[in-house]
Specification:
single chain; mainly alpha; two-stranded antiparallel ribbon; 2 helices; 2 strands; about 5% strand
């Protein structure tokens, strides 16, 4: 049996709505579905956490806190 890539969400594919941005998304293997976030929002939340815990040492374009402080 050959699997093919599907470019659209299909019924029953395990999608959910991102709690931050509202986009339809699914688990990508990085644990973001536990928090009900899409991958982009999950990564942004990680950068916000890093920013508040340690700082980055430099401005990071992808960090929501850095962008808000700019």
């Amino acid at each position: 049996m050959t699997r093919t890539m599907v470019s659209k969400f299909q019924r029953g594919s395990g999608t959910y709505k991102c709690e931050s941005c509202g986009r339809a998304t699914r688990e990508t293997g990085h644990g973001e579905s536990d928090l009900r976030l899409c991958r982009k929002c999950y990564n942004g939340a990680g950068l916000e956490n890093e920013h508040s815990d340690y700082g980055h040492g430099e401005y990071l374009e992808d960090c929501p806190t850095c962008r808000a402080d700019a």
